[in-house]
Design a protein that fits this description.
The protein is built from 7 helices and 7 strands, in the order E-H-H-H-E-H-E-H-E-E-E-E-H-H. It is of the alpha/beta class. It has a 7-stranded mixed sheet. Helix 4 crosses helix 5 and helix 6 packs across helix 7. The longest helix is centred in the middle third of the chain and has 10 residues. It is globular, with a radius of gyration of 15 Å.
Length: 162
């Protein structure tokens, strides 16, 4: 069970506030991208986020442009997972490709608040919060393998190198 401290956000958090558009075409390493994570939504996030923290959000997280930097900057900032009722499909895939777990949780996100602690069991498909357990469809073994290897590129390299 992965435990983490929660950062809570609302519906329709778009890629422009996850990784501000003004940085999109500036070459940056992931650690530098992390310094700008969510700066247009929560100016204190990048300095205060700790490895293992978890974002819990409303519906349609990651909507907007297809920029992969949105997932990359959150992963580099130490975010261990994002839980939301729904995600933009492109963001969802970019997150998996980056090695950042995304959990579609139909119920329970309303009760979770910033600073709370949640536990996630990716294999069993369970989120625990404040003595309650919420279920989500367990991640397929293929997706778990990508996440465990740190993203799609490291996973492909591992598979190809046997």
């Amino acid at each position: 069970m992965n435990q983490g401290r929660v950062w809570k956000y609302g519906d329709d958090v778009n890629t422009d506030v996850i990784f501000p558009g003004k940085y999109t075409y500036q070459p940056m390493e992931p650690a530098e991208m992390a310094e700008h994570a969510l700066e247009d939504l929560d100016a204190g996030f990048a300095e205060a986020v700790q490895p293992g923290d978890i974002i819990v959000a409303g519906k349609n997280f990651g909507c907007g442009s297809s920029r992969e930097q949105a997932a990359t900057c959150l992963k580099a900032a130490g975010v261990a997972a994002i839980i939301a009722p729904s995600f933009s499909r492109i963001f969802f895939r970019n997150a998996i490709n980056s090695g950042l777990p995304v959990i579609e949780l139909a119920e329970g996100t309303d009760a979770i608040q910033t600073g709370d602690s949640v536990g996630i069991d990716f294999t069993a498909g369970v989120v625990e919060h404040d003595g309650r357990t919420y279920s989500f469809p367990p991640l397929p073994p293929e997706v778990l393998a990508i996440l465990e290897d740190g993203g799609l590129i490291p996973h492909v390299k591992k598979v190809l190198n046997g």
